[in-house]
Fold each of these.
Amino acid sequence: MPIQRRVPKRGFKNNNRIEFVVFNLGQIEQLVEKYGFTEFSLENLYINGLISRTDKVKVLANGELKTKVSFKVNAASEKAKSAIEAAGGSVEIIK
């Protein structure tokens, strides 16, 4: 019998885990320049082919945001929220 059948399986996959599509502020700045976003929402991302209909989006604070953009996303880190508000934008968390 092969060794992968003899050795017991380890761990498990959590079926209740929520997986997000992550966007950093640096990536968002590039997307704003490329697509001309003034509102960074799930619908805009879906229309431009960046996410699928069922994806959840999270914004992280890696990079720098210089443009005023309003956000409607599923989650955002505290640093990202403060950086967005410092640039003049707003963040709305959607469930």
Amino acid sequence: MRLDIENFYILKAIIEENSFSKAAEKLHRTQSSVSYQIKKLENNLGIEIFDRNDYRAKLTEGGEVIWAEGQRLMKMTERIHSLATSYQGGWEPKLEVVIDGALPAEPVMHALKVISDKAIATKFQVKMEFLGGVQLRFEEDQADFMIVMNYKPSPVLHAVPLKEKLFILVASKNHLLSQEKVIKHNHLLDHVELTIQDSSGSPVDELQFGCDRVFSLSDFAYKKSAMLVGLGFGWMPEELIRQELESGELIELNYVGGSRHVFTPHLVYSIDKPLGKTGEIFRELILETL
């Protein structure tokens, strides 16, 4: 059984005008052609939509159900047409963004909110990875953007530097290292080092100290929790521990090699994959906020 969506628009006109003849006038058709299309719809569905015993165009009980579903079908059809028009106009059907979990999520969420408020039909998929896993996921998925702390440059990648991010070497106020006035490398080796697991599987981390006891955690929320209970020491994004530093729950360690490290994150996308309208908007929003 095949349904003609046009018949539901005829049905809509009849219901709105409460009359076959007035619906025909509204649609600039003959009344006989309107009646024929409705009869055809009834035959296809095997159900009477209108009560022919009433002088007005009155729906049967079954007709009420068909009309309710027909309205959903019309809305879906209009949505499909709207999407097709958007995509023909240069709006991407979907965009994938891979972000390093060391970076704050709020700027990305803000960008998505702005795009959503504009009723842009593009579907977004945001994935979080860590360290080398960001670029690995970006390349494997052929994603549209990556927002990354470190990456391997390539002739086919365009990278835009973002605001610098500060990482601080910290431990709990109750940790033994927090009591040390001057901390040398060999002092660190006696304690548990807390790190983030590289989601690419690579064991290399340029900021690791080489401790015998290393706990690799899945994200910075777990890492902060581990630090707050005094499990170990490690590097944390300043933005994620600002409150704990101010309250004194976490202490910046006085390490002789330096307790601060600055990264310049980048917004990266492929030169071979030109951005559409949504991609351009997303890029500008990220550059404004991150």
Amino acid sequence: MIIDKDFLSDLRRNAYIECTENYLAHDNVVGIFGDELPEEIFYGCGLIPVPLEGVDSHIFRFGKQDEGKDLCDVIKSTLIYLTTQKCPILYSCKTYVTENKCQLLYNTLKENTEKPVIIYENEKQLKQALCKIYNTQYSENKTQKAKNDLDCIKNILTEIELYSDLNTEEVFLLTFYSKYMTDLPMRKKYFKSLKQKINFRNEKKKIQKISALCPRGNYKSVCSGINSNSARLYRSWDNSDYGYANCIFNFKNEKNYEEENKNASF
């Protein structure tokens, strides 16, 4: 087996320890929501970005009565993890940064924490806000080094998407769960090593694009209905193929957090 799916899905759990250690030693963890944020800017500010959204329904039983009842599973899970302080990632973050996409998530975070919550506007605004909150100095050299690493990873991922026979779930985990690998040089090393083990086609594949709203928590159920190794699952916003009940965006098919995720540990 080239791709260890258990290893990739466990990266979030492993990030609990790393975030806690960085919180105690440096207090330099940032929770991020959105996969188009410029990760290199966070590293350039001497910080560690980690995806913040809750990805399972296990936490629902610990919420207050009717807590998050009118929210999608993504926001509900994130909210209850936040209010119960049962997620080391959320707890370790000094601030949260979201893409300028889901206003409801931003409002929910803002209303339930005293920590700063930032909507990303542009790189200059992000640099200034982060350096002020964390009392750090922005480094162009650190940013460029991080960007080089991220570009290398992105190029390998693109090659995997278009020229490999890895299945939908494997490519999804590589793309979305590798972001929990907070040590960026180690992430790059992992992908470079992985590239040597994969047999690539000579010709580009014809890709079937499947879109989903915030799919880190429902990717298994989405991928279970896909039988093609040419299908690729992408995150999107409006008019997605898959989404959640109570989502503020439009979608075609409903896929909520399922029982299989209730066994997830904190």
Amino acid sequence: MNQECNASKKVHLRQCHCFNLRQVTLAVTALYDKYLQEAGITAQQYSILWHSKELGPLSITELASAMNLDRTTLSRNITLLTKRGLLETLPSTGRRRLVQLTGQGQAVFAQAYESWQQAQQQLESRLGKKQMSQLEDLLAQLMG
């Protein structure tokens, strides 16, 4: 009886889109974290550095909006990256604090970029170019 119940729970979980997408997110993040470990940053921190590099100085609120992240979650990582000297806070005018990539942050980003490319290739090799492209289209639809 207990075995049947456990099997039923597993079937139900496999049918839960939220659970499945969450599991994929965890697996993909772990893959990227593994590759980025050499550069000493996580996948989320890489994304913060990338956005900072591409968008230039932004307030934490603007960066959170651009990355579609909770401001509190972002602030925690910005604090860590600032302590490591990868980001810096510019002198503020009023209440708006701007954050930007430092020279050291650019160097770490450049090193991490190669690791990121390897993670990209690893993920693409699992699915193939065509299916990866289809997945990206489906994810874009889900994000609306």
